[in-house]
Amino acid sequence: MNSYTLLQICLFMHLTGLTLMAGTDIVEFVAFRSILKTYQTNKDAAVHQIGILSRFSVLLLIGGILLVLSGIGFLIITHNAFGNQLWFKIKMIFVLGLVLNGMLMGRKSGNQLKQSLTTGNNAKAQQVEDAIRAMIRFHFIQLCIFFIVVIMAVFKFN
After folding, report:
1. Residue 135 class from Cβ within 10 Å (0-12 exposed, 13-18 middle, 19+ buried)?
2. Average per-residue pLDDT in the chain?
3. Is there a contact between 67 and 59 (Cβ–Cβ < 8 Å)?
4. 123: pLDDT confidence band, cut at 50, 70 and 90?
5. Which one, 70, 111, 135, 149, has least CB within 10 Å?
């Protein structure tokens, strides 16, 4: 197998991983906006929808693994040619921002949502709504960062 074929395989894996991660973020962003409206009228249905969304984390994990493995493959095949370019270094900072935002803001918002849902009394309804809004903000930020990363990969400024 020649290096061009390996590069195409890595590109396919990379695009698949990106699609899984960004697509999942889009779905969760739209779903949490819908859940916020549903929660105000039918709390049980909204809680059920949140439970279904929690299963999407597997897609994010698979997408992340594909992105990392294919990215390493790119660097090996190109002999780290990207690593010396300014656009690539800036893009990696944004990718790190995606990871950090997910670990810090995403995990915090998710835990806040779980905690507010387990309390279960009506006095905590505002906490649940605030937690859902935090999840919406988190996914919006993730989508903005994904957009910047893709723009940087396409235009490759120096």
Report:
1. buried
2. 88
3. no
4. low
5. 111
Tokens of 126: 């505002």
Interatomic CA distance for residues 85 and 89, integer angstroms: 7
CA of residue 151 relative to chain centroid, distance:
16
- pLDDT (average), residues 98-127: 83
Please enumerate in sequence order all residues whose Cβ is within 8 A of that of 58, keeping only pairs 6 or more positions apart, or say none: none
Higher pLDDT, 29 or 78: 29
Name the DSSP class of 84: G
Nearest of 72, 84, 67, 71 to residue 19 by alpha carbon: 67
**pTM, to two decimals:** 0.88
Question: Residue 105: CB partners within 8 Å, gap ≥ 6?
Answer: 134, 137, 138, 141
Distance between CA atoms of residues 126 and 124, nearest Å: 5
The pLDDT assigned to 120 comes to: 60
| CA nearest neighbour of 68 among 13, 23, 12 | 13
For 63, counting Cβ atoms within 10 Å of its Cβ (0-12 exposed, 13-18 middle, 19+ buried), the class is buried
